[in-house]
Amino acid sequence: KIYYNFNWALKLCTHALKYLPENKYLISNAIIVYFVLDLDKQELLLLDKHLKYFSDDFIELMNFADLLYAKGYESQAMKYFEQVKKLQPESSKLPLWLSHKKKKNEAVILLDAQLKKDPNNERILVDAAKIYLNCGMKEMAKTCLARLIQLYPSNLEAKKITGSLFEMDGNQKEALSIYEQSARNDPKDLAIMKNLATLYIRNKMWDKAIHNFRLALENYPNEPDILDGLGSLLISCPDQKFRNVIEGREYCERAFIHYKCTPAFKIEAAKYLATAYAMLGDKQKASWFINTTLNMAGKEKNPSKESYYKYFDTLKKQYNISN
Known about the structure:
It is built from 18 helices and no strands. 76% of the residues lie in helices and 0% in strands. The chain has helices spanning 6-19, 24-36, 40-53, 58-71, 74-87, 93-100, 104-117, 122-134, 138-151, 156-168, 172-185, 190-202, 206-219, 224-236, 245-256, 263-279, 283-299, 305-319. By secondary structure, it is mainly alpha-helical. The model has no long low-confidence stretch (mean pLDDT 92).
């Protein structure tokens, strides 16, 4: 079993910052600890220093833009994004990032400028197809994909994008076939593993879904949504022969405390931790995670909040849990 002690990490970081207040790596780690412990004021106080010291580090800035956006600090995240844009204005990772954040107009404007400047760039064409798909612009995605295949017929990502188009069109059989082939060719492709998991679960292929999650964790042992996906399935799989509540609880715990876990996945992890503890007879912890789930869902204005109330009403009656 893996244990984490972020309170101890907080003490170490606080002590170290007294003596090394300008150490950029310490500042970076301290912000992550503050992020995990929801110490928002301390986290925000260090951001200006962090941005100053890592102003030329593309990867660090992108990671922190992600963390801040997930935390709900959109203006601070965009400040990091603007600095990244200065470093690599031609990178198609920029509009791709915007498309994942549902910033459709900004993503398309930036992408169109990049395509106009370099219309035959392989990387840009790959990301362009993904961006248009993320933005719901299927025909534009098909146009980019056709150009990609024409110019670069051996490009492996073209096949994956074709799978995504099949999935969007409701052709799950063809999508599954393409995703499985892609996974065999590159088992470290996390996006494909996630796509496979989604389709396996949608089609009630529980054994394949669990096996797929385990394969993904071999290469990405701390990926929060993979941990949450496997944990929740082991706890509450409709086919009870695939359940392993104790193991599932551990995976959900790891997802719940991971600093990169988005609020949506954190809420889901807490929901299934409540379920696991109820099934294991620990009513006190089950009650704590029930209240934690509902509080987080309320804070994040999660649209599924009412469904959580109904779910927990049933759970509490089933296992005789009081508030």
